[in-house]
Amino acid sequence: MTTLTEATVKNDLSPNSDLQVGSAARSVATSVTKTAAKGPQAKEHSSGCGGASGSAQIVQSLWGALVRKLFIDHLALWSAFLALGADVFFTSSGRHPPVDRPYFRYFLYVTIAIFIIWPLIVKNKPASLEKFRQKDKFYAAAFLFLNVLNLVTGKFTLLPPLFFPTPDRILSILVEDFTYLIFDCLAGSAKLLLTGFSCGALAGLITGIAIGFSKPSAYWLNPMIKILGPIPPTAWIPIVLVAFPTTWTGAVFLIALSVWFPTSVMTSSGILNVQNAYFEVSSTLGAKRLYQIFLVGIPAAMPLIFTGLFSGACSSFLTLMTAEMVGVKNGIGWYINWQREMLAYANVYAGLIIIALSFYSLITLFFKIRDRVLVWQKGMIKW
Amino acid sequence: MAGSPDTLTQAEPVNNTAATAAAIEQSLMQQELKPASGPAPLTGSHASAAATTGVIVIDGVSKVFTHPDGSLVTAIDNVSLTVKAGEFVSLIGPSGCGKSTLLRLIAGLETATSGTLELDQTTINGPDADRGLVFQNPYLFPWLNIQNNVAFGLRARRVYRWQKESVARYLELVGLGKFGRAYPHHLSGGMAQRASLARALINQPRVLLLDEPLGALDAFTRMNMQDEILRIREDKAITMVMVTHDVDEAIYLSDRVVVMTPHPGRVETILTVPFARPRARNNPGFFQLRSQILEILNFAGHITEPPYQI
Ligand SMILES: Nc1ncnc2c1ncn2[C@@H]1O[C@H](COP(=O)(O)OP(=O)(O)OP(=O)(O)O)[C@@H](O)[C@H]1O
Ligand SMILES: [Mg+2]
What we know:
Chain A is an all-alpha fold. Chain A folds into three domains: 2-70, no CATH class; 74-168, no CATH class; 178-377, Orthogonal Bundle (MetI-like fold). Chain A contains 17 helices and no strands. In chain A, helix 6 (103-121) packs across helix 9, helix 13 runs antiparallel to helix 15 (289-326) and helix 16 packs antiparallel against helix 17. The model of chain A is unreliable at 1-50 (pLDDT under 50). Chain B has a domain at 53-125 and 247-299: P-loop containing nucleotide triphosphate hydrolases (Rossmann fold). Chain B is built from nine helices and ten strands. Chain B has helices at 5-10, 27-32, 99-107, 146-156, 163-173, 189-201, 219-236, 247-253, 285-296, and strands at residues 56-66, 72-83, 88-92, 114-119, 122-123, 131-134, 207-211, 239-243, 256-261, 266-272. Chain B is an alpha/beta fold. The A-B interface holds A 275, 277-278, 280-288, 291, 295-296, 299-300, 302, 375-378, 381 and B 107-109, 126-129, 131-133, 135, 137, 139, 141-145, 152-153, 155-157, 183-185, 199-200, 203. The complex binds adenosine-5'-triphosphate (ATP) and magnesium ion (MG). Residues 65, 67, 73, 75, 95-101, 265 of chain B line the site of adenosine-5'-triphosphate.
């Protein structure tokens, strides 16, 4: 009942009818109060509005509810249908190389199926359902974007076809080159990134802990960090190319360097900012130096350590891509560069999509781990 | 550290400059501090016991701090004090008179510029688990839940036997039995302070040092905590030294009240609280002691009529 009235109010555009309804409701309300001493007035008011204006209101509110239930609550689905309709309705300009299969249409079928089935799967989980509903508008906009992209490339070719391939082409490369892209290029990049990141993070933690807990280390390491740290890792490329036996080890070094700097700075400042009282308390509880370092200093510095690791991760992505485009003969960055040289822009976009998805997954994983580790922080905890 | 009878005889008060106040009767207190007849109480035994260890001897201790600008500040000057086994001593005095400094010296967090500090005839050099310390701020480790906070001392000393049982028992002792899995930011101020008390007590220290432990609590929580501290003292027979700003609290809890004065920090007077335990909060005798302390601290200036008449 309440949703109906709400819908009416929102969809009612003319102030005049509003006034009418208002006065009609008032007269009904007064008659009700005359007959029944204190009845459920609100109920009577919305359902029992007699006369012509009353039935018009019912129609209007039903219509509002219908619009809401069918359309506004499922914008993404409608946007996907719109894209599908446009793809079917308009014929291609023919200025793009043809593809074997209509991959964009397949993609839309799959998404439409997901958007219909998913709410049914999570029907009994209000949290997941709410999360899904909340992102509805965003997905709607995304599908609209893809729709427009499809129209301005494949259908009307308003952009140069060489640099702006159709969604069909990009998807076809993702599908047809899948094994090569994932098991050769992405795996190569992942190996390089993980090796470099682990080395850099470990070195950064060790340096940061040393600076945080030992005066002599701080004396020697601080100036080094201050001088070497701000140099962009890629500026070392000329030296790295001659100093390392292989470009791969050189690239590992560069990535490690880009993780090392923020990690060590944040770790040391995290440890130095731990309130001394925590160390005092732990020492009166019988904790010796080593125990204090690992069970007081480091846990207390964890929030800042994670900040350091995060910015290290971001700059390691950058270094990885640069290293692959400059020297390493493998990986997704190298693939993109290679395809660009061959003017195969659909492949370039496919590579970019893979990079985006994998870095997105890595960052998501990172935040999941952080939330798990820092569960003690105020406001982060959920239970 | 099994205490021998000589520990106790040796532990008679070292009279300092202001020994005059010690003239107040001490018989009741002496009676209470008879040496234990049996062996030291077993871990967590709930039988009331008298302490045989935990004798603190402070002899001519001074502490001079150097400020960043190079100036010297004498925080405490030639302080001598002996705290008997199982005694409850309060340090009271205006801000800056060196109460915290004295406590930190006993804890081993500061080193004395001159003079010596001993616990059970062993020189104090550095913090150790035999002297527990509770601050005004509970300083619970925020990354550990309450039971891990309480277990910290045991783990730091690599005591793994009966760890779980001890933690549960000490949480129960301070009335936090159900909150072991909560994180510190879930607790109220009073609960957090009780947790930090449990954390200090689980090491079974011979001495518990309390630096305004109840200063941040509201009046009711405060009174509850005072009784809780007394109960624990009764139970575990621990020597306690407490810094407080609250004269009533000092009188209610203590066997002796050490009144200090600043610039430089000195022991002005040591007053014995002669009332038997358990004490009533409205004991009329408290008032006289109270006005005596306030007079020493120059806060009783405008009382014109005799303070206490029946
Ligand atoms: N770490 C330090 N460095 C320099 N000066 C200090 C230090 N700690 C204490 N002091 C000085 O020593 C004096 C006594 O300080 P203390 O903290 O012991 O006083 P207090 O009696 O505990 O005061 P309050 O009641 O305010 O807590 C003060 O003058 C203070 O400035
Ligand atoms: Mg203080």
